[in-house]
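Hello, quick one for you while I still have it in my head. My current little project is about how a certain protein chain folds up. You're getting the sequence in one-letter code plus the fold written as tokens. Would you mind checking whether the tokens look sensible for this chain? Here's the protein in full, and shout if anything looks odd to you:
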Amino acid sequence: MTTSFRQFSVRPQSPAYWRVTFDNPPINVLDGATIPELQQLLDLMDSDPELRVVVFDSANPEYFIAHFSAAAGVDTIVTPLPGGMYPWVDIVERLARLPVVTIAAIRGRARGVGSEFALACDIRFASEEKAILAQIEVGAGLFPGGGAIERLPHLTGRGRAFEIILGSDDFDASTAERYGWVNRTIPDAEFEKFVNRFAKRVASFDRQPLREAKRLLNTHSAQSLSAAINESQKAFFSALSWPTTITRAQKLMELGSGQDSDLERNYGARLGSLMDEPATK
């Protein structure tokens, strides 16, 4: 495979097992420029006849995927594809249906769209000490629009999904595991070894039963939710023009959103008193 990407790298460990590492400094935000790269990556994954497992990780141990930023290529996010589906919804739904096992190896912060990307993967492993998950959208004046509203209740239950989404706070890995948000937590010193061993084990199995098992699990669960997520995405884009949302977005930028700032490291805590915060990073 010779394709290269700007915001992540693809490192085949074997013909059956790839590692995809997000690397978009300073904090791995996902933006409009990420979308066409992910679409191209999914095309490669879907067409490879030997691939069985892909692990998604991060080059920055403090940030898995920080959140969404509209700073680059916003048109690629808000313009529906010819079939009417928004590009991000197409990506998370393709991840869910892909005939390849996808694993999110979460070290650092996975907030907003970072959490939603992990939710679209088949399996989520989290570093016990380093992983932090959050759906921060309500605290930022919005609501999740890329799959969290649809997928979280099936994993955590309705009440905990309300707590996660409406509270907009940071969750440590142990709590996320207890809630069902992630499959399990692993001590950070053992994390890489554990994920690699699991991925190699699954990659050693035959592709046809892996593919069929995933297809049937999706068929008999609530994983294929494209129409519902697309409706949420459309509502999300409409909410970007709310005056209160614009006010909060401006405040977040003043406080260092998108940079390796105290806000980004402590988003959940800072959101609780956002409008009382002085405009210092």
